[in-house]
């Protein structure tokens, strides 16, 4: 399963324990501009990734090129973004995905809490409206066993 998720914590327990098994992903691509240039943080995050899972840290604009170069588009891959603008940028740069899982987007100033695990800024909402307008289905699940739609 090719699965794209937004989670501002990127690699953490829910991703490792729930989403990797759910997606059967053997590859994890963490798309984040800051992390792609920070080897120390990459090493720290990679400690949590199980053996047998290939992983890479790439810049957001380079996700599609990376996936193409490794012939991963038809494979079981989990792509992680930290924010809605990053997911939009990757989509605009050519990453073709039809479903986007919104996992954890923490509350902060100027954000509106839309469900227990998702708080959106105006920019986030604009990005999600853009993606929805391009035919991307939004999936608001923190973990795979959660309901897909937003509560009430």
Automatic annotation (TrEMBL):
A Pfam match: PTSIIB_sorb
Signal peptide limits: none
Keyword annotations from UniProtKB, A to Z: Cytoplasm, Kinase, Phosphotransferase system, Sugar transport, Transferase, Transport
Top-level class of the enzyme under EC nomenclature: transferase
GO BP of this protein: phosphoenolpyruvate-dependent sugar phosphotransferase system
One GO location term (cellular component): cytoplasm
Subcellular locations according to the entry: Cytoplasm
PROSITE patterns: PTS_EIIB_TYPE_4
InterPro entries assigned: PTS_IIB_sorbose-sp (IPR004720), PTS_IIB_sorbose-sp_sf (IPR036667)
Stated name of the protein: PTS system mannose-specific EIIAB component
EC number: 2.7.1.191
Molecular functions per Gene Ontology: kinase activity; protein-N(PI)-phosphohistidine-sugar phosphotransferase activity
Domain PTS EIIB type-4: 1-152
């Amino acid at each position: 399963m090719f699965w794209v998720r937004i989670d501002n914590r990127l690699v953490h327990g829910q991703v490792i324990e729930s989403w990797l098994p759910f997606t059967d992903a053997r590859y994890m691509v963490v798309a984040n501009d800051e992390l792609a240039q920070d080897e120390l943080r990459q090493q720290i995050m990679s400690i949590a990734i199980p053996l047998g899972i290939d992983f890479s840290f790439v810049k957001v604009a380079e996700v599609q090129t990376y996936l193409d170069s490794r012939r991963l588009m038809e494979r079981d891959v989990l792509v992680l973004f930290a924010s809605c603008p990053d997911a939009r940028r990757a989509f605009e740069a050519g990453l073709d995905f039809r479903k986007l899982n919104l996992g954890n987007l923490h509350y902060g100033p100027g954000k509106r809490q839309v469900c227990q695990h998702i708080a959106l800024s105006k920019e986030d909402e604009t990005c999600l409206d853009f993606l929805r307008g391009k035919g991307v289905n939004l999936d608001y699940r923190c973990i795979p066993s959660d309901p897909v739609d937003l509560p009430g």
